Here is the input.
Amino acid sequence: MSDQVLIVDDDPDIRELLSSVLARRGYTCSTSSNGQQAIMAFGTQRYDAVIVDLQMDGMDGLELCRRLLALDSEMPVIMLTAHANLDVAIAAIRAGAYDFITKPVTRDSVEFALSRAIEHRRLRSEVKQLREVVKRSQSLGEMLGESQAIQGVFQLVETVADSGTTILITGESGTGKELVARAIHAHSPRRDRPFVALNCAAMPVTLLESELFGHVRGAFTDARRDRPGLFVQASGGTLFLDEIGDMPMEMQAKLLRVLQERKVRPVGSDKEIPFDVRLITATNRDLESDIEQGRFRSDLYFRVNVVAIDLPPLRARNRDVLILAQSFLERAAIRLDKAVKDISQAAAQRLLDYDWPGNVRELENCIERAVTLTKFSQIAVEDLPERIREHRSERFVIDATDPASLLSLAEVELRYIQRVLSAVGGNKSRAAKILGLDRRSLYRRIAPTSHGDEQVK
Here is the structure.
């Protein structure tokens, strides 16, 4: 359904011009030639914004603005004026106008003001309803969200939970891979058995082998007693290996054998112990690329990647940002024993504008910090970290009158690739297919980070 706009002006040419321009942009426009007509129309039709001329015979724009806001205090009113000076601006603000545009009206100025006003109203309404939205929002375990991207994950988790299938969870750091693993376990027949998790990153082979497979007394200097490994400790339940992409190659070979045989041999022992676990692994790396570069075994990849679940980054879940923020706020307020209830509209806008390179984990950290620092019942902009307060969204806008906005072809290409990657939740194989590139060509076009990983912000 298109946005409804009421245009009030006693000049028929202005009414026709604005209606024509806005209709081409998808707005549904109604017009009134004076204030009384506008008030009557306001009583029979719902509008998303009103554009009012300041100087009209009879009731002027300031008086009409005051009356319309008395009927709907949330209505954004945009004032048209032939003279933009300080006195006019002060009068418009006092009357409650959201914005004002100087005549002669240009298409760009009215479109920009109108889109901003309607977005302002939507955000204001959304912020007011956040607590109710959180209560009725669909969730899976501790995961929460209404965006299409996360709902697809919820559906896949529910589909695979009852099986014993091995799962590979992929996604950027901070997207909640362990929460997905726990949700799978909680919805599976193994829910009453152990859930055991281990982060494989930066762990030497000897320690990792002992952790996973166990050891017997005397196997090494500090082995003072027998210790069962995690495969045995998780027997009947679920074993979650996080950051499996960082597992050393030597250990990958040993893990593959264990998965094939379904038995482990503790370090220092000559006996094998059978186990019964469901294995879930996770990584923030592109394992297919690591296979091509000789950093990950292809046979292990196919063993752990029976079903893949790709977690979208938070920047691809914009609809969920405020829902998650309100949920984190409520949890932090209880834990910290503070009477913080919600988020101001200005702070909510900053949260929506930010790119969240640290994903859900960064958002949770930000909100806990804000709850800790605020002295009021509402989180304000001043309570947010400086990087979020000062962040400005990068707009892909080219203005021929502004040389600074003109980009090289290489920069245009990179920005478009970044947008496609964001739209597909960071899945590089899917992005390469959409872009008509092979995977190697896509990697060459993305600025590399350490270990060959690519990060797009």
Notes: DSSP finds 20 helices and 18 strands in the chain. The mean pLDDT is 86.
